[in-house]
Every structure is written in C-alpha cells, then in structure tokens.
Amino acid sequence: MKGHLGADPAEFIARVRAALGRSRTEPAPPPPAVDETIARLARPSDDLVALFEKRATLVGMKVRRIKSADLTREVLAVLESVSARRVVVGVGSLPQALGLKESIRRKGIEVVDWQAAPGLDTQYDTDAGITDVHAALAETGTMICNSDAGHSRGLSLIPPVHIPLVRASDILPDMLDYWARIKGKRGRELPSSMAFITGPSKTADIEGVLITGVHGPGAVHVMLVEDA
Amino acid sequence: MNPASLPKSPPPEPKDVHVLPGPTDGSAFTGAAMGQGNITEIHDTNPLDVTLPYHMQPRVEKATHDAQLQQFVNSATLSKDRARKRICLEAFGDNYNRMRELGGRIKQHTLDHLDYYLEQFVTNAAAAGAKVHFAETTDEANGICLDIARKCGAKLCVKSKSMVTEEMHLLPKLESIGVETVETDLGEFILQLDKDAPSHIVQPMIHKDRAATARAFTRELHVEYTEDPGKLCQIARNLLRNKYRQADMGICGGNFLIADTGTVVICTNEGNGRLCTSAPRVLVAFVGIEKLVPSLEHLGVLLKLLARSATGQPLTVYNHFMTGPRRPDEHDGPEEMHIILVDNGRVKTLKEETREMLRCIRCGACLNTCPVYRKIGGHAYGSVYSGPIGAILTPMLKGLGNYPDLPHASSLCGACYEACPVKINIPKFLIQLRRDQIKQKITRWPDRLIYRVWAATLRNSLTYRLGGWMQKWMFRLQARGNGSLGRAGSDPYASRGWLSDAPGPVKSWTRERDMPTPPARSFRQWWDEHEKDKKSKEA
Amino acid sequence: MKVSIFITCLSDTFYPRTGIAMVKVLEHLGCEVDFPQAQTCCGQPMYNNGFHDESRELAKRMIQVFENSDHVVTPSGSCAAMVRDYYPELFHGDHAWEHDARKFADKTYEFIEYLVKVLKVDLTQLGAKWKGKATYHYSCHLRGIGITNEAEQIIRQIDGLEYVPLEKSEQCCGFGGTFAMKYPDISGTMVRDKVACIAATGAQTVISNDAGCTMNISGSCRREGAGVAFKSLAEIIAESLGLMERHDDYLHPAGQKPRTAIAGCGPIKT
Questions:
Q1: Global pTM value
Q2: Chain-chain contact of B115 with A4 (C-beta, under 8 angstroms)
Q3: What are B383-401's pLDDT values in tens digits?
Q4: Interface with A, mutate which of B190, B332, B422 (most A CBs under 10 A)
Q5: For C40, which of B372, B461, B494 is closest by C-beta distance?
C-alpha cells in the first residue's frame, strides 16, 4: 500500500498474525451465522406501517400518516408551524414530491439551492430540511438517508427541523432486511455516507436531562405516505 | 481551546442563580439534590495523566467521601442499568442471553482471524478511496495525525468523542502545532472547558452537574450565567456550529469497522459525530484494530445490542456509515478520508489467554451495573477505561505492573459479566490478572506468604480445625473483653459477640463495620452429637 | 436420596445454625444426610486472589473427600460457584483431574437450588408457618450458578411471612472475600448502601444465604444501628416447619432505624 504514514502495514499485520499464533494469513472460516430466530426483531408479516409509526414515535419523532395527495399540504402545514423562512430540499426523483419545491416557494418560503456550491455552507441558516429516505426500518422506527449527487449529508442534519418523506413501500421490517438488500456491495459501490436516523438529536450529558436538538435537528416530522 | 478565539459576549452579570423547572422527562434528580461538592473543577493537568505505577487508594478515599459524586454516579448508573434490562428483555425476551452469546461469538471470531479481516478491510477501504495508516504506539498515531494536519494546512479541527484518542492525549499535540481543536460532544466540550477528563465511557461528565457546567460556560465563554440545561445546550450549539463551518479538519473515532465493505461506523446521539465527519475537508478516523466486524450483517447483531446496553435506546440516534471520502458527483463530505488503525497494546492483548477482552464494544453497561464503579466513579481508575472493563483492559494495554491495584478493586460479584452484551467474562480475567501478578512477583512477598500458609493449613483437617478453634477463641476473648459476648446458657450455636476495633488483618474490616465472633460451638461439634443421637436411636 | 453436605468454613465456625438447619430440613424431606469429616475449604479465597496452584491442591482434596457422594449440597452460592465454574477451569487440560472435577461440579448444588430443582419442594404443602416481616438478600454468586428468584419463590410459600423485596437487590453488598479488607472504603460504602435499602423495607428479619454476605451486612447493620435479625434460608425454613426453635438475634432493639446513611445510598427512585 502506498501513501501510508506510520507503521508499515505488512509488518503491522505480521505482528497481529504472530500474536494469533500464525505464520501466514489464512482465509477465515465462515463467521457465525446470524441466527434470525434470535436477532430478527420484526417480520414481514407484521403491520409495518403501524410498527414503524409506534417505534418512531417512541424515540421522539412526530409521525403523520397521510395520503400522497395530501403530501404538499401536510408539509406546508409543518413548515408553517415551525415558521420556516428558508428550507432545503433533497427528494431525488420521488414522484410524490414532485412539485413540492414549487408549492413551497409559492408560500413565500425560500428553497435554498444547496447544489449551487460545494460544501454545507448554504445550509446552516435554513429552518428545515425535507428529504426522502432510502429505506426505513419498522423494528426501531429508523430512517436511512444516504448521500449521493441529489442528497446532501446536511439535509437531515443541519436544519433544526427535519421532514423526512417515508413511503409505506420504503419500510423494511428489520435492519437485517436492509443488509440483505445491499449485500455484496463494497467500497465505492456503497454510498460514501449512510445515516441511520432514529429520533431527533439528543443529549443527556448534563445531569441526565434529556435535551433534543443539541447539534442535529431538534424535531423530526415524519410524513408517512401510506398509499405509496 | 483558546478562549480568546471564542465569540465575545458581555462580561458576566452579577450572579442571578435561578433554579429552573425540572427536567421534562423526569429522568434526573432535582436541584435540591445538588450541593456544593468538593469535586475539583479546573484541573492543571488531565486527571487521567497519572504517575505510574498508579495506586488508586488516594482517589478511592476521596471518592468514597464525596457525597455529591456518590449521588451523581449512583443515580445515573442505576437508571441506565434499569433501562438496559428493561429494553433488552422487551426486545429479546428469553433470547437475551443467546443474543449476547451471538454478539460475543461474532466478535471473538473476528479477533481469532484479525489478520485476515485487517487485510480485507485495508483493501476495501482503499478501494473506496480512504487512506489507511497503522500506528503501533500513541506517538506514532499522533504523529500520523499531525502529518495530515500539516499537509492540509489545518487551522481548526472539530472532534467527536473517541476513546482511542483519549488514550493518546492527542489534543495538546495538535494545539502545539497551532491547530485549534474543539471537542464537540457536549459532555466532552464541557470537560474541555474545565480541563477535566471523561469519567465514563458513554456519559463522560457523569461526575459533573449543571452548576459546574454553568460556571464553566460563564468563565470560559463569557456568557450569562444559566443552569438551564436547555439553554446551556443552545449556547454550545450556536458556538459549535460556527466551528463546524470553519473547521478544515474533522476527527472521529470508530465504533466498528466493516471488513468486507471498508466502512467506518460511528454511533452518536447528538449529531456532532455526523457534523465532524461531514463538514470539514479532511477527515481522520482513529480506530482500535479490535473494532473490526466481518460484514454489515454481523454488525447488525452488535448494533442491536449496543445502544440497548449503553443507554436503553433501541438504536443510537445516528449510526453513520462512512465508506471512503465524498464521491466526484457529491456536493459535500470530506475530500480526504484517513483511517488510523491503532495498536497501543492491543496486539499483545490478542494472545489467546486475553483475546476475549478485546471483544468490548464500549457500551459502558458494565460500568453502569458495577457496585464499585457506582461508589468511586471513573477517575479513581486512573485511566481512560474505567469500571470493570477498565480494570482488566487498562493493565493489559498499559502494563500490569503500572496498574497493580485495578484487578483487585472488585468484589467479583459478576454483575458486569451478566450485563456485557458480548459476554466478556470480566471476573475470570480479574482473577487471571491477579494470578499473573503473583507469577510476575508484582504481588509483594508478605502477601504471597500469607496465602501460602493459609492454604497449607487448609490442606489438613486437623490444622483446619485448629485454625478455626484459635480464631474462635481469639475473637471471643476480645468480645468478652468488650462485654458484647452473648450470655452463657443461651443457644451455644448462636451466642456470639462483636468486635468494633480488631487488630491485625481484621483491622480494616472493623474500620467500616463490626465483626461478628463465632458462636461458642461449631457445626462440627453439633454433627458429632447428632451422629451419636442417631446411633443411640437406631440402637 | 443420599446427600453429602459441604459446610463451608465460614458456616462451620461462624454460622453453625445454618448447617444444622440444612441438615434438619433435608432429613425432614427424607434425605439421608452425610457429612464427610475430612472436608475443609473449597479453595475459593486462594483462587480468587490468584493463588491457583494452592487452590488446585485444595480442590483435589475436595474432589477426593466427596468422591463417593451422589449429591453434594452446600448452603453457599459462592462455594457452589467455585466448584461449578472454576474447578473444571482449574484442571483444564489436566486429563487426570479434569474429568473428576467436572463430575464433582455436576453433582454439587447450592441448597436453594437443590430444594427447587431436585427435591422440587413446595412449602405450602408442608404447612410452613412463620410470623414476621422479612426481606431477602440475593447473593451475587447465585448468578454464577443460574439462580435468580428461586429463594423468593420459596419464601413466598411460607404462611404468615410478610415478604418485602429489597431494592437494588442485584447490587453486591461489598463483601467479596478479601476485597472487604483490601478496599474497606469501597466495601464500607457498598454495605451501607445495602443497610439503607434494608432499612427502607421496614423488615425486621433479613434472610441472607451466604455466610460472607451475612457477616458483612450484619456487621454494618450493627455498626449503623439497624434493629434487624439475620437468618439463612435454611434456618427460616427449619423454623417455619417447626424443626428448630425460633431464634431472633436482633442486633439492636427490633425496628430501630440506622443512622443516616451517606448520599447515594439506599433506594433511589429513578
């Protein structure tokens, strides 16, 4: 390996090998199987929408179960409730959200073009981030937001309010199902950033008092689109 | 951190301390429980920068007499311990132990084949565009980081919580080459203001309260005095936002490394971890080599255990998976990603006898459940890793002779083993380290002699009885002297006396509590009569 | 059923009533009880302090002493755990002894465990009666042998006994063998925490089944002024079945509250 600093990788791994009592590296035997009867905590037969809603609510997110026809109206209602003046949007090609930006603008709310310049700088002074999700997990009420050309890492992180759009069809029962979906991908085949989001930003560092929104969003308003 | 570089606010107003409405979730103790404790607030040096060999007694004595510390640590650990049990049973039910077993087997397998998985990780991380470096020592690890900082011309660095960087006192090194470095985890940020050090793996400022935080903020940040945790968080948020924005370098740790994808995983609740790893142009991740896991599927098992064991949450709020730097079509994310894989004593711990210790996923469950930790807090352990896991890991990483007391600071109650999500048999290792101390003659010779003589008397029933008899009469004579011995004529198998200041080896016992004496007669004496009775009945 | 009893060194000298009660209960339940006189100590103090060679010698002795026994029963979780968890480990790889150590481990039971798992005792059927308010101290080493709430189940079967669970019952009392003398400050704070929890129950009797825990907790109760009496589970069963005269050895006038404990001790509602 070129370009490394510090210890020589080959020598370093040789020391590891020696500590393990081997003189050469052998391929590892298959790792322990992930026994689903133990590790799986949600099944396809569960009512995934209801389960997701319950778990997401438990960890402090606000979930609205809506129809796709009402998406724009509901998002605007949330934006109004938090007095949003400037928002960032990253919804990829989500058909349900097409036209959303236009509707927001018509309400007099600025949709900041975060793609205009590299970096996160444009996003610090915004009031809400609206994103779709790459998947959601019913097991824990988790949303998975990956980075790519259409999805900044900042959208679900920097504005004080995050409004994720979750379609019923995005919801997987268990984390294990998401791993199965991306199985075999490695290195650059994976997004440079995958974020599993389970609740608003939290801290309990001061005397165990729970405070939300310490660095990331203090509120997460999930739009759970049941008919999509 | 240089206070001068922080935003200027008006000087503090005369103190107007107002106690605010209590916590919204009812989870904390109230202001009434606080007092002016005797916790040292501003330290000249890092409290974990101790002289070796480290003897814990002075700090133990201080901690056990510190009512405020007892209160904080006890109530915080107890609530987390209860939350762990509740949520683990809720999620796994009767499978809780099998899940721990599975978690343990996954980590053990990875450690058993660490050479293979390291090679695999290096290949995949490099394929994703990350630069992987190896560091044998803290100096080497710090050196790599300083090189990176110099090359990218870093001026301001934002850092998220990382235990491995705590091991190596990285911050002063960065400051020494002119890189201002800010801890961004709220707890660590407050500790940095007070030049204090974390005392818990997961809840770093478990030993501090809101008043101490308020004083630190007023003193160092020149903000108006407030004890409202919400307002304190807001102040930190605003300040740190500007830091993320300006920082040219980000430092994080790593909760896991995924061998077959080349991914670094960090688990944080506040979001500072994601910001530190997303905003600056250059990212440096410090990770101990034991953090490897074969695949994302296997990681799943450990993630399901980690937050539940640590804080009683189903998952940490943000699990951030980073595979290489930003891609050409992305608008943000680090342009350079460096991963420093750290040994610092881990490779020698990998030997078969102690390998299991490296399974640790740093959830802190063993600290929360440990009755000793609850009484002395983290700093008494004199090292970054405290509590039961610290008591075995620190001597391995930093030398058994340097931490001779740690393996003994445990009643071997086994609560840690029961709480550990990867089933590290901590009591077994505590005993193993005690054994190694004898082998290496770290245990002083009078102690070695006492145990050997004691064992010798037990090898023979005559000397055993003689010893018991002598102990009985020595204790009873003393009790007779102090007038506490039970009346003659009462049940000879129950009548006992008490000692309140015994000499010799029992002295330290009676310093804290009374010592009962044996009753007049022993079980053996009863048994002999019982046998006679039986025989006479049979006859 | 033939049962050999292993009376641990502390029970023999400090708490003979525990052994006596255990014999009486086992005999009452139809067991043929035998006490091999050559027994001494299981070697736990040496083992826990790292003196494994010395401990091994004592283990060999124990294995030989109980060689011909079918079942070995002891009124101590920590000694049972020593035999069960650590004997096989002590002889790991020693072919001459490993098998015997395992065999010995397999036939050794803690008293509560033996009552519940082997004899399957139901005290309600035996007419157990005992009047008073009692709490129970869970000894840590029961964890090691997989005992959770078995003793509580048995205690609840005694008619007239008002059982009050102890808060933080899973927290060690601070005995830990030589730990109590090596780290008296820590141990002392731990045991005062236990005393405060006991006081909060309002119980006048503490059922504690490990001699070490009893020495420690009763010693602290006496120092702190708590008016309670201590009994082993065997004693309370024997008394409740009328096999033994009731003996309440109050450390202070019954019901007397301990001096104020230091902060962080006792039950904390979270």
A1: 0.93
A2: no
A3: 999 999 999 999 999 999 9
A4: B332
A5: B461
